[in-house]
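cron nightly-structures :: item 1 of 1
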Amino acid sequence: MLDRVAGNPKISLEPKDVPAVRDVVAETVRDELAALEQHATNSTGYQSRVAQGSLASVMGAGTLIVQLD
């Protein structure tokens, strides 16, 4: 993506500059995505679905154990 940006004549970033900014851009994107992921997984709706899925798994395993006996 940075190579395409560097090739765009409307942007002052030169192709030789790409290696210098690649790590900074990648770190910024990682940080922003981590913040979005944390926000998305911190909602009560998500936590509720995780709890429901865990409960369903335990109940399903218990049912299989009872059927085996």
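cron nightly-structures :: done
The two ends are 58 Å apart (CA to CA).
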